[in-house]
Amino acid sequence: MISVLFVCLGNICRSPMAEAIFRHYVKEAGLQDKIHIDSAGTGDWHVGNIPHVGTRTKLDQAGISHKGMEARQVAPSDFTHFNFIIAMDNSNFKNLTRLCGRPCPHLYRFVDFLPHSTYKEIPDPYFTGDFDETYDLISSGCHELLEQIRTQYRHQLV
């Protein structure tokens, strides 16, 4: 099974939003039994909490489920379990690189999946308050990620 982990700081805004959106797109593509999706935070402040009210509201408006989602912290086993570990910003990327402790070829920045964007990282709506901007960026990047997975793993997705 192909596995994708989205990572932000606290796992209550950006990464659960990406998890929910990507899970929705994967289900629409009929690939939910081929792709495992999760999210985590580099920090432990919100472990056990449901997504931020702004994230839940935006997902509800889009008709995307966030049922059962609960914040967790990145675990050492994540570095061997996931094919894609996707950091929402440069600080998350640096923290994940440090936590991995070795070259991590399956570690990406979310903006890697936004090739035509001028954004250098995904803005954190916890601080900006702009959940619409974050949703739009994540939605676009999740489409691109799914296409990349379909291309890279086409034989496994049959």
Name the descriptors:
6 helices, 13% strand, 42% helix, alpha/beta, 158 residues, Rossmann fold
3D architecture notes:
By secondary structure, the protein is of the alpha/beta class. It has one domain (2-152): 3-Layer(aba) Sandwich (Rossmann fold), CATH 3.40.50.2300. It is 42% helix and 13% strand. Strands 2-1-3-4 form a 4-stranded parallel β-sheet. α1 links the parallel β1 (2-8) and β2 (35-41). α1 packs across α6. It is globular and about 40 Å long. The protein starts with a strand and ends in a 6-residue tail after the last helix. The model has no long low-confidence stretch (mean pLDDT 96).
| Estimated structural class | alpha/beta
The CATH class is Alpha Beta
CATH homologous superfamily assignment: Response regulator
What is the general shape? globular
Q: What's the average pLDDT?
A: 96
**First-to-last CA distance:** 12 Å
- Whole-number count of domains: 1
- Total strand count, please? 4
Q: Count of helices?
A: 6
Strand order of the largest sheet: 2-1-3-4
